[in-house]
Amino acid sequence: MAAPPATATPSPKTNHIGLTVVEYKGGKTTLCAGCGHNAISERIIDAMFEMGIDPTRVAKLSGIGCSSKSPAYFMSRSPSFNSVHGRMPSIATGTLLANQTLLAIGVSGDGDTASIGVGQFVHLMRRNIPMIYIIEDNGVYGLTKGQFSATADLGSKLKTGVINDLPPIDTCALAIQLGATFVGRSFSGDKKQLLNMLKAAIAHKGTVMLDVISPCVTFNDHDGSTKSYKFTKDHEEPLHDITFVPSFEEIDVEYAEGETVDVTMHDGSRLRLRKLEEDYDPTNRIEAIRRVNQAQEDGEILTGVFYVNTKAPTFTDLLNLTDEPLATLPEERVRPSREVLKECMERLK
Amino acid sequence: MATTDLAVHGATGDSAGNRIVNDFSLQVATVNGSGSQSANTVLLRTIFQMGVPVSGKNLFPSNIAGLPTWYTIRANKNGYVARKKEVDFLVAMNPETAVEDVKVLAPGAAVLYDEPLKLNALRTDLTFYPVPFDKITATVCPEAKLRKLVKNMVYTGVVAYLLGMEMAETEKAIRRQFGKKQKAADLNVNAANAGYDYAVANLEKLDPFWVERMDETRGKIIIDGNSAAALGCMFAGVTVVTWYPITPSSSLVESLIDYMKKYRIGPDGKATFAIVQAEDELAAVGMVLGSAWAGARSMTATAGPGISLMSEFTGLGYYAEVPAVIWDVQRVGPSTGLPTRTAQGDVLSTAFLSHGDTKHVLLFPASPEECFTMAQDAFNLAEHAQTPVFILSDLDLGMNNWMADEFPYPTTPIKRGKVLSKEDLDKLGGFARYKDVDGDGIGYRTIPGNTHPMASYFTRGSGHNEKAQYSERPDDYRNNMDRLTRKFEQLRKSVPKPQMVRDGSSKVGIIGYGTSHWATGESQDQLRKEYRTETDYLRVKAYPFTAEVQDFIARHERIYVIDQNRDAQMFQLLKLDLPADQIGKLRSVRHYDGLPIDARSITDDIRAQEGK
């Protein structure tokens, strides 16, 4: 990190584009005290600040639900579109078609993604839309007072005693299978891991899909829940220790060869994964799916960056879009000439 | 030989007596997937090239191949291009439908048929022309597998002879049809000539229908409404197109893809547009809203079932005030309905699409020219009013071939509406997204990517105040809804004005819209000639209705509203808009059998309601 300018009186710390963290703040949260979503909002603010992202270049997108309200609680300087339930992917896709230079961050929930929104989720992943897609995953619907969503684990219990008897949709396995190019799982309570994952996500070009376990303190934080703080802390199995070195910083810690896997992101920054498991290769798609499914089978909450592919073309690459955003092309570039119309008419005579 | 097969011909059917020139409808009954579309286009173009006003309507099944299809060509010296109720000349190539096709003909009609079908035994009041198509085809097409396709071109030659069409024009039309495929063109020209030669040698002209050269098509083009719409969108400066294939709108986007690839790739070799086939209509319209919010000129094209799916997002577009252009090429509903037949059945559903209090701008093109111009109107309106705009075309307009005048180059610049730049914000210091600064109900917006620190706002479909902040306050909700009403009311002055087709001193008025226009004008002539009933006629082009509509109603005693749907949807929409003392003037004429409306149906209905 660039050292703050040495001055006699302490001034607020600025990032490398000269903004203070205050300029990344959002409105006051209206979510429950202790809600995991608030912690995620905080990490987004930290990651954007530390990466020196201009907030006016960010577009925040969401669907409906507690999670989808949270873009109001971070980065007020960024334009935001809180759309309809389960349909944020199409809004995000459209946003990036209009302006592929924006950094799009979508915030969704488990119901918004895996239940009502699974159709659009699937196609967003498949297209490798260049954006960050975060699922704030608590396994229940909060705003309608605690019904199960499609990520609730088999046998998990509601406060009312209702047992979930359907298997969960594993959004990470699904995302890897479908074509997302940066897929991980984290926990709202794991500050360091989540922050580093988000920073790497910002540097990635392609669809980043992060499933973040984010306990619902009101409806799903009791014994019998598999998405509670306690259960998650007890069952979290990090795949690796994650550090992220932005392109504007030097790597200062060296590890012995074989201890780490380094992934160079397209902007030159590096995602450094210190192995906790022998031979886990996050660029191996088949193995990633197997390992995520294995964790599901074993009842462990595996966290970390499961899969990274920095080579795959994004959807906007495939569209061969002109460099200037479509949104701001002037009339002379979007209305063909009189001669073109004449030519078209001649062909129809 | 051929003449000996003839039954008694129709009353008017002698070649020396009544010649009916440039006034008939010719129907070709074939099987879909048999290549008959090429042959039918050749017939249409031959008549067009002879300077005679003509239209072609394809009645096809929802099927890839093997089901019956009928193509109707109407030639009319007066320029009537609506469907004619009666078929005057039938080309019966489909064994499946031939008997029924012949049975429903009016006396005096002519039937050209494939000889083995022996249709001449069915009726004694028609003129029959049997032709051994397989034998003729075999002589010109040695390759057996091609014969099925070539067989249809044979009838173009026979028809050309019988109706007095110029074979040179037929050959020109065939060569145009096959373009650079020289071998295919030669083969088909030979087939048409073989049909012609057979007819010269074997058939005696006994029906009264003739084509004679006129000069009424000079400078005109032939185009379907969907291609015209595509051109209109390209010249309107569309940048994002998202869609999900659905009959009858698919060809609109497919045509647009072709045009954009040809004319909208910049000198850098890169596209100045994005066209995305979405996973469904929900995603298609979601991408439209997302991209329009982020500053693109965005559109989608769909039909009724897609409109139903777009309902929720359309409400978001209305309430969050995001521009969108939505083409609805209407087909017959409800539900899957008749996917390949035409209707104007989505007027009410689009006008109020989505839950809560919503109202949407609708445009009603009646011709390819208007598909072209209204595309431009729609984008400018959508961005001016920051709201979804629907263009209600229909299958008849979208998928059939129409004569049209050359399209005029746009005279109106591309208007992006009230968008604040960084420089604007430098001066203003900030803005309130939904504040009615100008008194027209339309606020100022910013486009994501604007680098001014105060440029952002929070777009949402939930309750909000004029600063776009979340609000459940009763006064904020009401003020916002009232402003939206104000905006909608103001749009009466911005939407295309109706066409006053005839404004005489008649007590009887007609209000029509969209493709009913062509049959309505013809019906006015029938009412005048046959029943001495003069009618005035106003064609509505947009909703909300402009002042001219109420004025027209106020000035007439009785108003017939022409709808191509069961529930008189335009009639109902007008009722909602009128003062109570005017509502009783409205009467309804409805046509809803899946076929394009025809003049005779309108005339009969109005005559009956007029007590004549």
Give a short overview.
The complex is a heterodimer of chains A (349) and B (612). By secondary structure, chain A is of the alpha/beta class.
Model description:
The complex is a heterodimer of chains A (349) and B (612). Chain A has 349 residues and is of the alpha/beta class. Chain A has one domain: Rossmann fold (3-Layer(aba) Sandwich), CATH 3.40.50.970. Chain A is 31% helix and 19% strand. In chain A, strands 2-1-3-4-8-7-13-9 form an 8-stranded mixed sheet, with helices on both faces. The longest helix of chain A has 16 residues, at 36-51. Chain A is globular, with a radius of gyration of 21 Å. Chain A starts with 35 loop residues before the first helix and ends with a helix. The model of chain A has no long low-confidence stretch (mean pLDDT 93). Chain B is of the alpha/beta class and 612 residues long. Chain B folds into 4 domains: 2-210, 3-Layer(aba) Sandwich (Pyruvate-ferredoxin Oxidoreductase, domain 3); 223-404, Thiamin diphosphate (ThDP)-binding fold, Pyr/PP domains (Rossmann fold, 3-Layer(aba) Sandwich); 422-490, no CATH class; 499-609, Rossmann fold (3-Layer(aba) Sandwich). In chain B, the strands form 5 sheets. In chain B, strands 10, 11, 12, 13, 14, 15, 16 and 22 form an 8-stranded mixed sheet that branches. In chain B, strands 3-4-2-5-6-7 form a 6-stranded mixed sheet. The radius of gyration of chain B is 27 Å and the shape is globular. Classes of the chains: A alpha/beta (349), B alpha/beta (612).
Please tell me the total number of domains of chain B.
4
Low-confidence regions of chain A: none
Order of SSEs of chain A, N→C?
HEHEHEHHEEEHEHEHEEEEHEHHH
Largest interface: A-B, 59 and 73 residues
Q: What overall form of chain B do the CA principal axes indicate? A: globular
**Alpha-beta classification of chain B:** alpha/beta
What is the arithmetic mean of pLDDT of chain A?
93
What's the main sheet of chain A like? Answer: 8 strands, mixed
**Structural classification of chain A:** alpha/beta
* Number of H- or I-type helical stretches of chain A: 12
Q: Briefly note the CATH topology name of chain A.
A: Rossmann fold
CATH superfamily of the largest domain in chain B: Pyruvate-ferredoxin oxidoreductase, PFOR, domain III
Span between termini of chain B: 49 Å
Radius of gyration of chain B: 27 Å
Helix content of chain B: 25-40%
Quote the beta fraction of chain A. Answer: 15-25%
* CATH homologous superfamily annotation of chain A: Thiamin diphosphate (ThDP)-binding fold, Pyr/PP domains
Distance between the termini of chain A: 67 Å
CATH architecture of chain A: 3-Layer(aba) Sandwich
